[in-house]
Amino acid sequence: MSDIAALPDLLERCRKICAQHGDRPDALIEILHAVQAEYGYLNDDALKGIAHALNISRAEIYGVVTFYHDFRREPPPAHVVKLCRAEACQAVGSEDLAQHAEARLLGHPSIGLEAVYCLGNCALGPAALVDGELKARLTPAAFDTLVEALEAKA
Ligand code: FES
User: Fold this and answer.
1) Structural domain tally of the chain?
2) Which of 7, 69, 107, 142 has its CA 20 to 30 A from that of 81?
3) Per-residue pLDDT tens for 82-96?
4) Is the shortest distance between the CB of 80 and ligand 1 below 6 Å?
5) 40-93 pLDDT per residue, tens
6) Same structural domain for residues 12 and 60?
7) Domain that holds residue 57
């Protein structure tokens, strides 16, 4: 992933990504995903470059970016914990775990906490993805241990 702030050719790269999608405004979501996959998030310059290439307003793009939860306007945290909040995990304590996790991660900008709805690991809930690695039967104590391991990596 490139550092978006240190990229002098961001506008040109956005234009190329748009061209790869035929400069079609109806491909906006795919284009946004492609730019975000390359740079990690979508800053104002990226939105400006995409708007110019597609000949649409920045307001239109901003509406799409803010509507879909998957698009980021800020650099992503170093680590991401995706905690399952769906029914099977709720039945075994994921809501209490989520409250614990939110409190534990207060003041930790390097560790992001996101809700997801079923990771396909329902029999072993509460389940989570920690930097893409599936974790099962999480307890508050096990969550704290995971956070300590992430902090040690930072
Ligand atoms: S409900 Fe949590 S993994 Fe399926």
Assistant:
1) 2
2) 7
3) 999 999 999 999 999
4) no
5) 899 999 999 999 999 999 999 999 999 998 899 988 899 999 999 999 999 999
6) yes
7) 4-67
8, pLDDT greater than 70: no
147 shares a domain with 83 = yes
pLDDT in tens, 124-154: 999 999 999 999 999 999 999 999 999 888 6
Pocket lining: 34 vs ligand 1, CB cutoff 6 Å: no
Ligand 1 pocket, 89 CB below 6 A?
yes
Pocket test for ligand 1, best of 89, 130, 135 (most atoms within 8 A of CB): 89
Structure tokens at 17: 């990504």
Residue 73 belongs to some domain of the structure = no
List the alpha helices (DSSP H) in the chain.
Answer: 10-20, 28-39, 44-54, 58-67, 87-90, 94-104, 140-153
CA of 110 to the centre of ligand 1 (A): 25
SS3 138: coil
- Same-domain check for residues 91 and 147: yes
Is residue 74 situated within a structural domain? no
Residue 16 has a pLDDT of: 94
